[in-house]
Amino acid sequence: MDEAALRRNLRRVKDAAGPGAALVPMLKANAYGLGVAAVLRMVRAELAPGELFAVGVAAVAEGEELRALGWTGRVVVFAPAPPGELARAARAGLTPALSDLDGVRRWAAAARDQGRRLAFHAEVDTGMGRAGFPYADAAAWGGAVEAIAADLLEWEGCFTHFHSADEPELAPTDEQQRRFARALEALPPPRGGAVRRVVHSANSAASVRRQGYGGDLVRPGIFLYGGSAGPGAVPKPVVAVRARVALVKDVPAGWTCGYGATYTARRPERWGTLAIGYGDGIPRALSPAGGQALVRGRRVPVIGRISMDMTVVDLTEVPEARAGDAATLIGRDGEEEIGLDEVAAKAGTISYEILTGLGARLPRVYLDGTRTPGAA
Ligand SMILES: *Cc1c(COP(=O)(O)O)cnc(C)c1O
To answer: Of 156, 94, 167, whose CA–CA distance to 127 is shortest?
Structure first.
């Protein structure tokens, strides 16, 4: 992956969010598969401390991992933690997103056990449906949350999450933002003259496409890692996936390829076997769906079914290809480029699933942007 590109994407989100908004880069799922330790280092290198409010994760275990990596700043755990995990979150000094009064009670109990005030953010459900207090009765739950929090908890922030901010049509996002604003107005003011709660709603798509929705914080994920966040929100490519051509062979017309023998050579052909497969996260659905690779700067088709550890390409049009060549399944080689979103679309999925599915067997190589990508 290209560190310079990730840092440019981060800066673009920061610039779009405006001077008043700090960032909560989302590092969940091993930083979308890229490697949380490396991405954390890049984020810290690019952002001034005042620009980086917290890092975001989904699971308590991911927060614990960030502590083990030496990150002492805020970690917000955005997915609702199963009941047993809040005590662990408290011990690790994490900040959970809470979505119901039971969660607030458990967090207050954890604060009592720890003997110190613990912070949390309240999620407001404005249509996502998977988590959050309902936006329409914020006055009711807001009062109850304040009462439970009392002196035990610090209600630090309120947020909502958009379901369609990467769609061409932004009206549903605007409606969610209106619902969120309504909920915020109905909430009781912070107790005892506490400082204002921070508010945030924007994921990557909304931070780049609806700059006014920045609030105090924005929570970018996919855009940092090179996945498009909708029309007008196309980041610098960050990730390349490459494999070696392990074997080159000439086959006669009629020879078959792969499980199910779904591909038959129509003429004498030259095939190359790549040392990568669905066990590394290359979607099996890419073939026969028009999946391609770049070899010596040219697009070649994937043929037959993708195996767990091997993928075969037709090299007939690239006769100079040799075993040991690099094949690019995502990324640039010379003048040609296979985009992350292009691969996702062919496989019938989204860039998020491609990145988070990249296997542990693939070594992560971090380039600083000064080396030519194809040289790795
Ligand atoms: C994952 C996540 C994000 C980041 O979303 P992207 O679409 O990747 O920018 C932001 N907020 C929450 C609550 C999330 O779970």
So the answer is: 167
- Check pocket membership of 237 for ligand 1, CB cut-off 6 A: no
Does residue 204 have its Cβ closer than 6 Å to ligand 1? yes
Tens digit of each residue's pLDDT (9 = 90 or more) over 122-145? 999 999 999 999 999 999 999 999
Q: Is 220 in the pocket of ligand 1 (CB under 6 A)?
A: yes
| Structural domain count of the chain | 2
Mutate to test the pocket of ligand 1, among 203, 223, 238 (most ligand atoms within 8 A of CB): 203
pTM, 2 dp: 0.96
Domain-embedded: residue 188 = yes
Question: Residues 7-51: pLDDT tens digits?
Answer: 999 999 999 998 999 999 999 999 999 999 999 999 999 999 999
Distance CA 325, CA 226 (A): 25
Three-state DSSP at 121 gives strand
Q: How far apart are CA 93 and CA 99, in angstroms?
A: 19
Are residue 9 and residue 121 in the same domain, yes or no?
A: yes
Give the ligand 1 atom nearest the CA of 165.
7
